[in-house]
Amino acid sequence: MTRPAWAVVPAKALDRGKSRLSTVLSRGERVRFARALVEHMLDALRESPCLDGILVATDGDDVADLARSCGAHVLRDRGHDPLSTVIDHALADVQARGARAAVVLMADLPRVESRDVDALLRALAEADVALVRDHLGRHTNALALSPPTAIATRFGREDSFAEHCAAARDAGLRVVVLDNERVAFDVDDPADHVLLTGGIPGAGT
């Protein structure tokens, strides 16, 4: 595994997150749920022995305060840049801090564990890029890179997983795809929330 290694987590302001859950959660419940997701991710990252730093990229004061309280660094964004731009800036930032490897994880992964983060970073011992797709197979829930700016990311696109794989291979990089059900499960819409909570009103918030 390449060290130093950093984690990058993009996260919207809590009151802007999880808007697609508005049919099943009130505004206050969505804020609490978004906060719980970010807290869970930061806890998993802090438990990883493979990380040397954590950077949260956010447009929200609430997320920035939460990140700092957990010992993470913060990179503020303007709130209207494309997700790929936000993440590329964050990857450049951690590389400037000395990172030789980085792992990008979406903030809405309620089942992720520190061992999943470690597996992604350890995969970089034999690859330049390691990825985990979402449970629908189209989006990228985790992306590990060595160096952190090895490719321009494709986050936010409809087929980001396929585009990340293609970009890495076009650049002549070694790519490994990890199948990981915990990392693959994210909460984007009401159906995902039902899977997470079993349909119990207010659960997960």
List the helices and strands and how they pair.
Blueprint: E1 5-11, H1 27-46, E2 53-58, H2 61-69, E3 73-76, H3 83-96, E4 101-105, H4 114-123, E5 129-133, E6 140-145, H5 160-170, E7 175-177, H6 181-184, H7 190-197
Parallel strand pairs: 1-2, 1-4, 2-3, 5-7
Antiparallel strand pairs: 4-6, 5-6
Q: Can you tell me about this structure?
A:
- Helix content is 37%, strand content 18%.
- With 205 residues, the chain is α/β, with parallel strands linked by helices.
- It has a seven-stranded mixed beta sheet with strand order 3-2-1-4-6-5-7, with helices on both faces.
- The longest helix has 20 residues, at 27-46.
- The N and C termini lie far apart (36 Å).
- Mean pLDDT is 90; it is low at 199-203.
Mean pLDDT: 90
Distance between the termini: 36 Å
Number of strands: 7
CATH fold-level name:
Spore Coat Polysaccharide Biosynthesis Protein SpsA, Chain A
Secondary-structure element order, N to C: EHEHEHEHEEHEHH
Strand order of the largest sheet: 3-2-1-4-6-5-7
Label the overall shape: globular
Give a quick set of tags describing it.
disordered C terminus, alpha/beta, Spore Coat Polysaccharide Biosynthesis Protein SpsA, Chain A, 205 residues, seven-stranded mixed β-sheet
Quick summary:
The chain has helices at 27-46, 61-69, 83-96, 114-123, 160-170, 181-184, 190-197, and strands spanning 5-11, 53-58, 73-76, 101-105, 129-133, 140-145, 175-177.
